[in-house]
Amino acid sequence: MTALEDYVFETPENIIGYYVDSGKVCEIILGLASKYGPNKGVVSDYVKNRGNLVSIEFPERQIPDILSESIACDYIFRELLNEEIDRVNKFTSTKHEEIYREIMKVGKQIRSEICIPVFEFLNESKRRQNITLENFNRDNESYLREKMKQLDLFESSLNALSNEIIHLDFYIRANFKILTRLSRFYDIMLEKSTSVWFQTHLTKEPFVDTNIDILLILLGLSWTRFREAEGVIKELRELSENKLSIEIRSEEEIEGFEKSKKEVWKPPETFLRTTTKYWVHPNNVVSAKVGIIRYVPYLIFGVSNSELETLLDPYMCVEGHQVIDPKTIEESQAITSVYLDNTNAECFYNRISRFEDAQLFRLRWYGSNSGAKEKEIFMERKTHHEGWTGEKSAKERFSLPQKYVFGYLKGRLSVDDLIEEGVFQDKKGNDTAEKSKGLARDIQNYIMKNNLQPFVRTSYLRAAFQNQDNNQVRFSIDTNLCMVNEYILESDRKEPWCRLAEEVLSKNEVTRFPYAILEVKLQSEQPIWVSEMLSRCNATLVYKFSKFQHGMAILHKDRVPIFPHWIEDFHMKNYNVDTDLLLSTSISDLSFSETNDNYHNNKLVQIISNYKHKNNKDNQVIKMIDILINSYLNMRQFDLHGLKIQLINNKSQPSYNSSEIYYKNLKRNDDYTDQYINNIHSKKIRKLDPKSLFAAERVMLYWIRKAIYISAFVILFISKSKKNKKFSKALTIIELSFIPTIIITLIFGLFVYIKRINTIERRMVRSLENEKERIDYPNSSLYIFTTSCLILAFSLIINIIN
């Protein structure tokens, strides 16, 4: 892909004019508010002092025959926004079609100009065996250079198209957000309630439904062809460098290769892998996908590679391939999982504590579930293994029709009953069937023994990336994650076995996760390109993140004994309670609510809070107008990865009518760019491992054990001193002096424990200044040794005297 600094800091100049003109709209809103708003006197003074505002008139030809000035304002504002929306719609559709056609063109050219000619050239030469390495080098060196040059040009084209897709997605999101905020700004300034209507109307606009997915799928197919072209070029280059022997590819090998492309990938029954999970902001999801498909193709369930190829070459149907309609193909698949636990949250506790052999059980289905009896449901068991065991964590599963799920969970249907019903007959091979039967028995026994029942449901859209012929590398991105409370009192639970889609849920029974979840599953070390991709999409590493644990912590917080380590960061990042300017109904009456636009609103809150307490109402209104306008005009001060950046001096504040100045400041700043590129990396949420808490407890037990040692020595000392009555008074004083020593040791142990717990909770255990404290206090052994030696010395002296 193109280097980060080459596209992240500039919006293409030919596209700037197609963004919503927030400066113009803000000026018109202020003009309306200065004439017809509830604070028109203050706003009018503000307009006069600032100047450069659009004069607002009401020509008769522009406004219908209406009576109310309020309705006239609404009419003007709606017409203004409709003009902006029309421009966004036209640009989006035109740009989408342009990218679509260009990807199709490049994908076909890679196949027709490199893959097929070079492949046929190699095979024909090998089949005839009419070349030698010497004459190949002499006659075809220019041919090789030409093809390598073509390959570089195709790579540049695909990189450019990748960045075009990223920007198109950013363009849609940014304009949607700008339009939404402008409608709220209008409501605040004129104390209206048009934003609710406008948002409903906005979601139905064509640009919102732009199909970015099909562009990503086509781009992925083009990159797949590019990798095939790289392969044949590599073979050609090695042949020219005398590194490759001439081998004839048999017809059987060619047919086997073509057959593998037609096969549909099916998930294995058992997975062995190392999984790392990241949070990705929704603005960065397309960037992450673009980075992945450069190296790993899409894995679309139920569709073979040859069928996907028809998207680039529709005329392949002549060769017997089934043609796929681009409008029906979906890059993401709906996945729903129902997790099992009991009222004591034992599965949750075992998993969060990461005990060896901790198990988690869930039922999963793909696509929609209307309650059909024959719907295939997968019963899965995930088993955690510690690193010291030498085993990898595994996921095992078997499938059964939905009509048997309730009876299986309740124990009314045994595995033998399922066998009689023919549930395991369609398994391929006797070994697979026997493993499924054994797994079904083990899971049912565990469910019955521990009284497990459905507790949490997770639903999301998953885009998967993997080669269909192996499971070595796999990526998945889960979006639109929603979690639902599935718990029902056991006495009230009847069929169906889970909640239906039409059931009405209360607010406390459902929660939506604001980020996408990127899972990187590898069976070997992480490649360099993966690290680069994570940096580009600003992914946040969340150690051992679990949808099940998160759902339990949010929906069943009264049942879980301990919260996951990321919960505190999650709340701080997304649910800061601050002043929500965008949801306010008026300037004078700002509401307080929870928002996840944290950084942006936190800054506004700090400024507004200061002025609310220090200024009168007029100054407060003026300052709030300044804050609101600057916040709306700076909406585009986000790079293509959703990161807010400041390219101008912090001391200078951009004016509300500074569209041209803003874009000039958005140009390349080499010093800032270098600093930014050096600082960008894959962020991590620092983990709070329960094992760290156990280690802190062991430290406290260490001090208690030392206090017991001292006590034993003191008791021995007392028993010896009773025989010597000559020094009884002095010895008694010495004996009593050791009692405070024992008490101080115990108190110090407790102090160390509390301090270490607070340090762990603040995620400071890895800091350099506390590095020694991670082990223990270095002088503790000297303290214990000195005290023990003194006691033994006194005891020895007494024995000598006796």
From TrEMBL:
Its main location: membrane. Residues 1-200 form the SPX domain. It is found in: Vacuole membrane. GO terms for cellular component: vacuolar membrane. Keywords: Membrane, Transmembrane, Transmembrane helix, Vacuole. The chain crosses the membrane at residues 700-718, 730-754, 782-801. GO terms for biological process: polyphosphate biosynthetic process. It is a multi-pass membrane protein. PROSITE patterns: SPX. InterPro entries: SPX_dom (IPR004331), VTC_Complex_Subunit (IPR051572), VTC_domain (IPR018966), VTC_sf (IPR042267). Pfam families: VTC. This is SPX domain-containing protein.
